[in-house]
Amino acid sequence: MIDYIWLWNQQMVDTVLSNNNQMRHIVLTSHPRPGGVKPLKVVWGAADPAVRGPLVGTLSDPRRRNVIGAHAGSYAVYRALAVAAGSLNALHRADLTNTTPAASIGPYPQWGEPERIVSLDPFGHLVADAFAQQLAEGWDLRPTIAVTKARLTVPELKHAVRDGQLIADGRIVLPSGEVNCTKVAVEPVWHLPGIAQRFGIAEQDLRRHLFEQTGGMFPELVTRPDLKVFLPPIGGHTVYVFGEVAALADPASKVACRVHDECNGSDVFGSDICTCRPYLVHGIEVCIEQAQAGGAGVVVYNRKEGRALGEVTKFLVYNARKRQAGGDRAAAYFERTECVAGVQDMRFQELMPDVLHWLGIQRIDRLVSMSNMKYDAMVRQGIAIVERVPIPADRVPEDAKVEMDAKKAAGYYSPDIVTAADLERASGRALQDYEGR
Prior knowledge:
Elements: E1 3-5, E2 25-27, H1 49-52, E3 68-69, H2 76-84, H3 127-130, H4 132-136, E4 145-152, H5 155-162, E5 179-186, E6 190-191, H6 192-199, H7 203-213, H8 220-223, E7 229-231, E8 237-242, E9 255-261, H9 264-267, H10 276-292, E10 296-302, H11 311-323, H12 333-341, H13 354-358, E11 363-367, H14 372-380, E12 384-388, H15 401-409, H16 420-424
Parallel strand pairs: 1-2, 3-7, 9-10, 9-11, 11-12
Antiparallel strand pairs: 4-5, 5-8, 6-7, 8-10
Helix pairs in contact: 11-12
């Protein structure tokens, strides 16, 4: 049987294991134990990784943990199931042989500016090299960023090559229509003082609300003010770079960028109620063209489904929009979301520019986005925007015109003018129109 121990005043130091390498003692909360092993301090914003120090979020050696939460937090429950089912050793340590980045990224000056990057670890992809000494000493460290190479096969891009709209140069775009790129996976790493400063709130208030709104899952948020780094249980983002990665930070090179927030229904399955997939594909095309012209293009894909409200909420809003009196129309687009979710949007783009700083980007020549929230967040963070590129009108699906009119009226960038009549006109299909009669 497992011994449940309520420890309010000490941190577990000696791990007692059962025969299948599972911990028998459970720490429900952790205060630092007087005289125990003191976790290595994290000097956030230090340009030298040796000064900054490694982030220890693994569970095999709680004495060294200097962060709150766990690596790959959004998958922690799956990991727990694997351990409980006996398919994963709870003390497994990652073998990082040959896992180093497939392309060199950084260091850039922004890495040494504490206020520039607060939501990811700039050294997250360099763990195997930057902290080789600690790894050799037996520390259990994990990368939070991985950099690899990829080849994309997107039907719309293949059709664009076939139709001569996209040029197959043999380097980025192949004659088959496939596209070469560098792909980066990023897990969130939050520096709590920096997050609080970015949002203009007190760190103590941030910690309390994080603790309360996660159902008390992370008691260290309120019991361990000495731990300043949090690995939140949320999805991160994937970065796709077209052309040379180094060109993104080169002032002499032009950069195109699409920052895209996840929309599974459209991005993967082609649902036509929104413009997400068409705009994503258009963004990729613009990024490819910029790379072929000697610059570089980057697509940042954020895991923020349904404006970070979630897919269930999104589908509830769809139903409410299409059943409301007067039909689905732009004038009530945001109102329906707020009625269900209590807020129009929870993406809060303030943290979004961090990954651009990590890539060394100081200027974006072509921003493929109409979002004023994204644009404003980048400009506030010191990234210059030369041109904004809206989605071409012929790529907007018929049922998505409600969304597009509503966003234009709300201040999204567009060369078009939306009238009051446009907002009131019901242009979205009704639910009965999906019955295929």
